[in-house]
Amino acid sequence: MSFTTTAEIKQFQGTLYKLAHESTTTKTKMEVNVFVPPTKSSKKTPVLVYLSGLTCTPNNASEKSFLAYFATKYGFAIVFPDTSPRGANIAGEDDSWDFGTGAGFYVDATTEPWKNNYNMYSYVHKELLTELAKHFTDLDFKTISITGHSMGGMGALTGFLKNPGTYKSVSAFAPISNPSTCPWGEKNFGNYLGEDKEQWNQYDPTYLIKEYKHENQPTILIHQGTDDTFYKQKQLQPENFVEASTGYKGGVKLNLVDGYDHSYFFISTFVEEHAKHHAKYLGLIE
Amino acid sequence: MSFTTTAEIKQFQGTLYKLAHESTTTKTKMEVNVFVPPTKSSKKTPVLVYLSGLTCTPNNASEKSFLAYFATKYGFAIVFPDTSPRGANIAGEDDSWDFGTGAGFYVDATTEPWKNNYNMYSYVHKELLTELAKHFTDLDFKTISITGHSMGGMGALTGFLKNPGTYKSVSAFAPISNPSTCPWGEKNFGNYLGEDKEQWNQYDPTYLIKEYKHENQPTILIHQGTDDTFYKQKQLQPENFVEASTGYKGGVKLNLVDGYDHSYFFISTFVEEHAKHHAKYLGLIE
Questions:
Q1: A16 vs B: CB within 8 A
Q2: pLDDT (tens digit, 9 = 90+) per residue, A169-199?
Q3: Is A145 labeled as catalytic in the residue annotation?
Q4: Which end of chain B is less crowded, N or C, counting CB atoms within 10 A of the terminal residue's CB?
Q5: Prior bond to B113 cis, omega within 30?
Q6: Is 80 exceeded by the pLDDT of residue B252?
Q7: CA dist A137 to A30, A281, B22, Å?
Q8: Which residues from A are below 8 Å from B264, CB to CB?
Q9: Residues ≥6 apart with Cβ < 8 Å to B64
Q10: Quick one: pLDDT band at residue A226, thresholds 50, 70, 90?
């Protein structure tokens, strides 16, 4: 379905587009922000997808991550999807900040009453990117990488590992790395996917990296603050992901950064390193 | 009065302190954010004051301006004051988004019922900086510059011009440049200062620059977006300030930037240039 533009904002010599469309996957109206940098060459512009964490809309990272500054510097576009359907009008979807609205968990739900709308996995990796490629013909949706924060870090890792060869590179800020074994994951997977743990594994980066066989094995970059409350509560567990990655040739570079929390103050500090990481795999720098 | 620390957040290798204190000037509790960059040398760290616009708290610019990224790069601290007293409990102070709470206009009120609390001019330029110098003994409050956005851009220009030699340099993002002749200024000056236009002049950058005689005449840097709604409505009028500055030897460099609006997307785009401008006058770069 085609997009309507709700705002067009100039920033860093590029443009932030705020768009809305009717999604056939979530059967709701969905919003998405896309930052397009100024054109540097006649080549199409590569794309970085940024998946946000719990409670976020496309606006939080657009306003607070500072990623667009480096997108202009290196020459890639950014897609900021929403984190769940909104307005599906399912009883209970607004009851909890860490489940339902704002917490789609980037899965395709298989249970009632969620399976009709809560299909953020297919929405992000299939419908949205396909539709955006038709809308933004100057962007190169074949040269694309993915990153994200917290729940979105999980979504980025999962999306990379489940779609071998689609994303040139992946990185994550404080990702929920082993959702099958943490309270957030148990709550969301239990509700969206039911009791079958084999289904949970299909969205668990720590499970998926053991199974990954594709030749595209870029280094996976992760930053995790040591003063992050959710890290201390073992919601994130990046060490489990690293342990499971022994067979992954590209390697996982986990940076435990002293004293940083879970907020956009943490993200904006390390976004430069992630932007540079992706710029390399997107062919923008050596 | 001494400060209590309500949060201490690591960002860009430095620390953002969220502080609160009881102000003797506003006779209310006041909040302020201070970003301290990592120490680069044994010298005390210079300071840049950032005055925010209508409706803002100290948090908006702390989260959205990205000034701290460049503060770490160049080695200056940032002080983000609040924009008005809060909780003065004056009838009518919360009725309007552009007057009262969140809109102190950086003046010392002379009218009832405002003059007991609404003294943001003296609060910022006298009490706050004096008290912060006692609290942060590693910061150099004698090597200090000032900037701001919209109402805060006016506050920065006014503070610089009314305190000759105090601030090494000044800059502004979309400042209210001639408040005596625009709707926002008429509303706020009328309420806080009464009908005497001579009092209004004492807070009007376009009046004050004509009177300025001090030898400290750094170039004044201003950015203004051409798609800024308030610029189009003639609330800002930077051209009036430029016209009035013919006797100012440092000159005013007004950059009209095509297509930018009044938001933090505009500020964050040009904050790099302003940071560099101040770093030069603060003796941090050539």
A1: yes
A2: 999 999 999 999 999 999 999 999 999 999 9
A3: no
A4: C
A5: yes
A6: yes
A7: 20, 21, 56
A8: 63
A9: A63, A64, B264, B267, B268
A10: very high
Determine whether the interchain pair A10/B264 forms a contact, defined as Cβ–Cβ distance below 8 Å: no
| DSSP classification of residue A247 | T
What domains, with CATH codes, occur in chain B? 4-281 (3.40.50.1820)
A82 in catalytic set: no
Q: What is the ipTM of this complex?
A: 0.94
Residues of B in contact with A265 (CB under 8 A): 9-11, 16, 63
pLDDT band at A1 (very low <50, low <70, confident <90, very high): low
Using the beta-carbon criterion (under 8 Å), do A9 and B265 form an inter-chain contact? Answer: yes
- The residues, any chain, with a CB within 8 Å of residue A37's CB and separated by 6 or more, are A12, A13, A14, A45, A68, A71, A72, A75, A76, A77
Instruction: Give which of A11, A262, A263 to mutate to test B binding, by max B Cβ within 10 Å.
Output: A11
Please name the residue that has the structure tokens 């199974």: A211
Residue B30 in tokens? 């006041």
Is some CB atom of chain B closer than 8 A to the CB atom of A17? no
How far apart CA A19 and CA A91 sit, in angstroms, is 27
DSSP string spanning B39-107? P-SSSPEEEEEEE--TT--HHHHHHHS-HHHHHHHHT-EEEEE-SS------TTTTSBTTBBTTB-TT-
Q: What is the pLDDT of residue B128?
A: 98
Q: Rounded to an integer, what distance in angstroms lies between the CA atom of residue A267 and that of residue B69?
A: 12
**Per-residue pLDDT tens digits for B29-61:** 999 999 999 987 889 999 999 999 999 999 999
Best CA proximity match to A85, nearest among A21, A131, A148: A21
The C-alpha atoms of residue A160 and residue A218 are separated, in whole angstroms, by 10
* A120 contacts A128 by C-beta, under 8 angstroms: no
Strands (E), A179-232: 220-225
Q: How far apart are CA A60 and CA B89, in angstroms?
A: 32
CB of A202 within 8 Å of any CB in chain B? no
A 247-266 residues with CB below 8 A of B? 259-261, 263-266
Check pLDDT > 80 for residue B1.
Answer: no
DSSP string, A22-75: E-TTTSSEEEEEEEEPPP-SSSPEEEEEEE--TT--HHHHHHHS-HHHHHHHHT
Q: Is A41 noted as a catalytic residue in this protein?
A: no
pLDDT in tens, B77-89: 999 999 999 999 9
Any chain A CB within 8 A of the CB of B69? yes
